[in-house]
Amino acid sequence: MLVNQVMSGQVISCTPWETAEFAANLMKAHQIGAIPIVSDKRDPLLEGIVTDRDLCSGVVATSKVAHTVSLADLMNRVPVTCHPDDTVAFCEELMRENQVRRIPVVDERGRCVGIVAQGDVALHAPALEVAQTIAEISKPSKAAPQPPHIEEGDFYCGQPHEMDEILLLNRRRKLRRQEVRT
User: Fold this and answer.
1) Rounded-to-integer distance, Cα 170 and Cα 182, Å
2) What's the rounded Cα separation, in Å, for the pair 5 and 15?
3) Cys-Cys link to 161, which of 89, 96, 147, 165 (CB 3.0-4.6 A)?
4) What does pTM read for this prediction?
C-alpha cells in the first residue's frame, strides 16, 4: 500500500510569520496535532512543522504570550518527510526511527501535498506492525540530531540529505549568484 492511499490530502498549513495562537486555534478547529509550515499557501514549499507539543513546550511551559510568538521560533525546520509513492511500511519505519507521529508528504519539488499521521497508518497497516511502531515512537526519545548549519540564503528543501549534498547545493547556488553579479 502506498502513502497516497492513506494520507490526509487536505493540508491545513501555516506560514512561519503566523503566530502560535493562530496555529493552536487551527489545531483545535480541525482536531489535528501538527501543522506543516509552508513558505506560501498557494505554492506550499515545506519549511517545517509545528506540533501541539511544540506549542506547549515553546509557549505554555515558558509562560510566553501565544499571540506574540511566531511559528518560525517554534517550528522544526528539518522535518522528516516522505513522498506520495513511498510505501506505508517505509513511512512506518521513518516514524519508528525518528520517533514522530506525523510525517508531511512532499512532492518531488518539496511542496507539501499531504500528511500521514500514526492514526492513518493504524487504520491500514497490520496490527502487529502498528503495535511495533507505537512501541518505538513511545520509547524515551533519543538525543535530538543536530540540524545542519544553514546560513541565511542557503538552499535547503527540507528533505533528509547527506551534509555533503546540502553543502554542494549551497556552494552551487552561491557560485551562480556570484556569476550573475559579475
Assistant:
1) 19
2) 27
3) 165
4) 0.69
